[in-house]
Amino acid sequence: FSYCTSLEVATIGTNVLEIKDRVFNKCDNLREITLPKNLKNIGYRAFYECRSLQNLIIPDQTEEIGEEAFCGCKMLEKVVLPNSVNRIKKGCFKGSLNLNEVVLPSSLSVIEQEAFYGCTSLSRIVFPPSIKTIENEAFASCYKLKEVKIPTAIEEVGNKIFNNCKMLSEISQR
After folding, report:
1. On the chain, which terminus has fewer CB atoms closer than 10 Å, C or N?
2. At 127, is the pLDDT very low, low, confident or very high (cuts 50, 70, 90)?
3. Of 82, 83, 87, 115, whose CA–CA distance to 99 is shortest?
């Protein structure tokens, strides 16, 4: 379905367990996607630059979301990640300009580099107690980010994780 610029709504069949790499790549007008309850994996750049996609609920069974899976989804506003996800991969939501709410799962342990880079509408992030690693530039250029709460059990923090976060006024540990 890559480059299907007229595609606006997609419902994935209930038997689908994996959305392979680049399946909906650059479907500019895709605004709504219904993912099957049993979905296990979302591949590399599966929804790359789906610029009209607005809300995203990842099913509870999903274990892996590939690198840059939702990179450049400029209209994406809210993402709810299930507890089955323990790692947010490199560039997963990079450049999602309207992303203002992310619900991180309680099982999350790693946020890879540039995962939320350039999510300019994101204003607050609360990490779950399970988080151990935040890699380089994970939240760089999140201009509206004002408040961050990091658990005391964090083990590794990369370079420039909040680089160019112009409105960041509070980082606290809890």
Report:
1. C
2. very high
3. 115
Among 114, 128, 124, 116, which Cα is nearest to 167's?
124
What's the distance, Cα to Cα, between the start and end of the chain in Å?
A: 44
Q: How far apart are CA 83 and CA 60, in angstroms?
A: 7
> 3-state class of 87 per DSSP?
strand
Distance of CA 40 to the CA centre of its chain: 16
Largest CA distance in the chain: 47
HSE-CB at 89 with a 13 A cutoff on CA atoms is 17
CA–CA distances in Å: residue 90 to residues 3, 10, 82, 124, 166: 23, 25, 18, 20, 22
What integer pLDDT is reported at residue 172 of this predicted model?
87
Task: Measure the CA–CA gap between 48 and 59, rounded to whole angstroms.
Answer: 19
Kindly provide the b/e burial profile for residues 56-94, where b requires at least 16 CB atoms within 10 angstroms of the residue's own CB: bebbeebeebbbbbbbbbbbbbebebbeebbbbbbbbbb
> What token pair was written down for 57?
């609920």
CA-CA-CA-CA dihedral for 37, 73, 29, 21, to nearest 10:
-60
